[in-house]
Design a protein that fits this description.
globular; 5 strands
């Protein structure tokens, strides 16, 4: 299985987002945790999930980009804007085996890991409810002033 995934990644069909429990740079892969597979083509991902173009064409955009597809799209954009190619992409998981806490992505900005939680909601009430549930790292990350520079730091080493 590992060899097959490596071949798909080498062909640029998927990218493996690596799990981490780190809260400081450089982010390190968490051993014995599964990577998140990120298809690099949303169209192919939709097709393999049984949702071809004809099915998607009649749906509202919010429904098409719901949940996992929105997360895939956000991951693609983070990869595209990261320094280097293909770059590393991490997601945060709790160290506790009794917790299923997870943050969709961690990206380095100004020398700090910044959590990115992707949410998709058809209605504003759903979005507000979900936003209250979307910051499991907030208690762990130190508070700091925004620099406004937008510079992304280097990951790993």
């Amino acid at each position: 299985m590992k060899n097959a995934l490596a071949k798909l990644e080498a062909a640029l069909l998927i990218h493996r987002a690596l799990p981490t429990s780190s809260l400081a740079l450089p982010l390190r892969e968490r051993p014995r945790s599964a990577a998140k597979l990120l298809p690099l083509d949303v169209g192919l991902a939709l097709y393999t999930m049984g949702s071809g173009f004809e099915t998607m064409r009649g749906l509202p955009l919010g429904q098409v980009l719901d949940g996992r597809i929105a997360e895939i799209f956000a991951g693609q954009q983070l990869l595209a804007s990261a320094p280097g190619f293909p770059g590393e992409l991490f997601f945060w998981v709790s160290e506790s085996s009794h917790s299923n806490a997870e943050v969709d992505y961690l990206i380095p900005i100004a020398g700090q890991p910044v959590p990115v939680e992707v949410k998709s909601a058809a209605h504003r009430a759903d979005a507000r409810r979900r936003s209250r549930l979307s910051a499991p790292l907030a208690a762990y990350l130190p508070r700091r002033e925004a620099t406004g520079s937008g510079d992304r730091g280097e990951m790993g080493a």
